[in-house]
Specification:
Elements (H helix, E strand, L loop, with lengths): L1 H35 L5 H9 L12 H25 L2 H18 L5 H22 L5 H21 L6 H21 L3 E3 L5 E3 H23 L4 H21 L3 H6 L1
Antiparallel strand pairs: 1-2
């Protein structure tokens, strides 16, 4: 029995090592493709999609369900491609590839509710920030439609942790809310420069803050069908401070108000 347990443990360690090496190679492959073909991100996009081959490695009737469950991770992968591609500076590109590998190896395999919430928040932030980094290259309706897809898929991932019966409906509501906000954000885009070519859109930060407060509100309601100030004080105060700083200090509204 002891030998059997040791054998299972060894297989688990070997599987974890193989998993880590595979994901390191995958992240390095994305980085290599982008560096070799810096004029376009499409080959790297295709590599992200091909890496999800297991979505269709089942009977066709399961394809839609598999696609929905894998969409948040796929969106994050596509977003990281955009980040690495737009970063341009190779040192920054390497750092981003290492962060993506860390995501794949450490955070993505976790299934505890709190960690899944973090996964969802990071996926939404990266996907929205990446979309708005290149959103000026496409019509507004394309951006709004993609934001809806991002919001819908992330909301589904979050609500699935609570076994919400109205998951699809509530996810549609969240996707629609983000899509409406993105229409305004596309016309009034403010971004924070990380490198000469890499910028983080303010809209991605605002959506992350709103998503955090919304999830905390839903969690409070899910526990006892009540939302109390004691439960929401810290999230609301935190969100309020962040939004005030973003909108007044970093958006130029403070100067406009003074005038």
């Amino acid at each position: 029995m002891v030998e059997f347990i040791k054998s299972v443990h060894r297989r688990g360690v070997i599987a974890n090592i193989v998993h880590a090496l595979f994901n390191l190679a995958y992240a390095a492959g994305l980085l290599g493709v982008i560096m070799l073909l810096p004029e376009t991100p499409w080959p790297a996009f295709m590599l992200v999609l091909v890496a999800k081959w297991r979505v269709v490695a089942v009977r066709p009737r399961y394809w839609w369900a598999n696609m929905l469950s894998n969409l948040p991770d796929m969106l994050l992968g596509l977003g990281m491609v955009v980040f690495i591609w737009t970063a341009a500076i190779w040192q920054i590109q390497v750092v981003l590839a290492v962060l993506y590998a860390a995501w794949l190896i450490i955070l993505k395999p976790q299934h505890r509710r709190r960690l899944v919430m973090i996964q969802a928040g990071v996926s939404q932030f990266v996907a929205l920030a990446a979309l708005f980094a290149v959103g000026h290259l496409v019509p507004v309706w394309v951006v709004v439609g993609l934001v809806f897809v991002i919001g819908f898929s992330i909301s589904r991932q979050v609500l699935a942790q609570y076994d919400e019966k109205a998951n699809s409906f509530l996810s549609l509501v969240w996707g629609l809310l983000l899509a409406e906000l993105s229409f305004v954000a596309w016309h009034w885009t403010i971004a924070y420069q990380i490198t000469p070519t890499l910028r983080i859109a303010q809209f991605a930060i605002i959506a992350a803050v709103l998503g955090f407060v919304t999830e905390r509100s839903y969690a409070a309601w899910h526990n006892d069908e009540q939302i109390t100030w004691n439960e929401m004080a810290l999230p609301v105060i935190f969100a309020g401070v962040v939004l005030i700083v973003l909108l007044l200090v970093f958006s130029g509204l403070w100067d406009a108000t003074a005038i």
